Amino acid sequence: MTLRIDIGGLPSGRLRFAASPLAELTAVLHVLAEPGHHPHLAGWAGEVWAGMPQGLAEGLREADFLWRSSQADFLIPARPRPTLAEELDDVDRIDDEKYVTAALVTTCGSNRVRFGAPSPLTDPAARERALDLAQARGVRQEAFAARLLADPAAVRARVRDTLEQCAEAFFGTAWADVAVRLATDLRVKNDLLRRHGTGAALAAVSGAVSLAPDGGHIVVDKLPDKATTAQGTGVTFIPSVFGGPHLAVVHAPGWQPVVQYPVAEPDPPEPVSLETVTLRLEALSHPVRLRLLRTLARGPHTTRELAHAWELSPPEVSRHLAVLRRAGLLTARRRGRYVRYTLNLPDLTALGADLLAAVLR
After folding, report:
1. Is residue 145 a contact partner of residue 131, using CB atoms and an 8 Å limit?
2. Which of 91, 204, 293, 294 is surrounded by the fewest CB atoms within 10 Å?
3. Contacts by 90-99 with C-beta closer than 8 Å and gap 24+?
4. pLDDT confidence bin for 168, thresholds 50/70/90
């Protein structure tokens, strides 16, 4: 499962790395909405909530679906500015239809409200559909969607005011704290891009981001199978300290592709792809393979030993071992005339964490 961004023939200057105060604020707000995704920041999030003015807390809860499940596209800017105020000014320049469509996609947790489809601001059927989808998410979501459709200008102004209050209450300090890490990361990425090209820069972003062999696509390991193009617009990469483990991507038609990636901790573990996680889960779904793993957990065994232990034929055992090896759960080592199989215990142990990381990515 991957997202592919077409960059065929794109000039090198159209791929850029830049920091964004608005995108980082969005990442911070996601941490506050979903501290369980970020256990290392849960204590910090609790302190922020405890010290937050009541009116601001209510404003964040009212609009949290703009950044809880995913991020509204206008909150991760393709053209980052030095200040939050400048980026919010750019958001203000987006027309109501594009803003409302992006907000409702996030509010409803669905891509069924699409760019280019009838606008819920003017089309009664699209409006009813948007409200039905919002109602399925809860009373607060439905109320927000209804207000947004009835008076986009008022809701947009309230959202901006809420974000500006966040800057005063807690984000200004958080932004100052992460500025050095973001600047350092940008120097590294831009130097790699300039000296060694796109492939090297992408490899440094994340193990979940790569340049396709043809050099014409950026491949991102994400849950949906999607495709978009950077032709005529370019691609922007935005580092985030608060965003990990998520890899957020703006890819909807009508929006320039943007990738917000987590700044790596020193010596981070290489992320395991969703494809690998899926392969391992499928390998573990067969009862015979589970029996073989229980034996291998006690030590290395040959095919014949396993066949004898479980009263199976050697060819049948070999077939199951091949599946487990392709999933990376076994290691084979030849000792003279025998091949002994060993369970890769760390990879099996990490499967739960790898699954969670792949889903959250």
Report:
1. yes
2. 294
3. 91/22, 91/160, 92/156, 92/160, 96/121, 96/152, 96/153, 96/156, 97/121, 98/74, 98/254, 99/74, 99/152, 99/156
4. very high
- In sequence order, the β-bridge partners of residue 239 are 261
* 179-189 pLDDT, tens digit each: 999 999 999 99
Which of helix, strand or coil describes residue 274? helix
What radius of gyration do the chain's Cα atoms show?
24
Q: Does the predicted TM-score (pTM) go above 0.85?
A: no
Question: What element of type H or E holds 135?
Answer: helix 124-137
- Closest among 259, 262, 263 to 78, alpha carbons compared: 259
**Other C-beta atoms lying within 10 Å of the C-beta of residue 74:** 25
Q: For residue 215, give both structure tokens.
A: 């050099």
E strand or H helix at 347: helix 345-349
With a CB cutoff of 8 Å and minimum separation 6, the contacts of 321 are: 292, 303, 306, 330, 332, 341
Instruction: DSSP letter for 3, please.
Output: E
pLDDT of 267 above 60: no
Window from 28-37, 53-62, 253-262, 348-357 with minimum mean pLDDT: 348-357
Which of 96, 166, 249 lies closest to 104 in space, CA to CA? 96
Q: Which helix (H) or strand (E) holds 248?
A: strand 248-250
Counting Cβ atoms within 10 Å, is residue 321 exposed (0-12), middle (13-18) or buried (19+)? buried
99's CB contacts (< 8 A; 6+ apart) are 74, 91, 152, 156
Largest CA distance in the chain: 78
**Could you report the per-residue pLDDT of 72-100, keeping only the tens digit for each?**
999 999 999 999 999 999 999 999 999 99
Between CA 158 and CA 172 the distance in angstroms is 19
Q: How many alpha carbons fall within 13 Å on the CB side of residue 235?
A: 29
> Which residues, in sequence order, are bridge partners of residue 221?
2
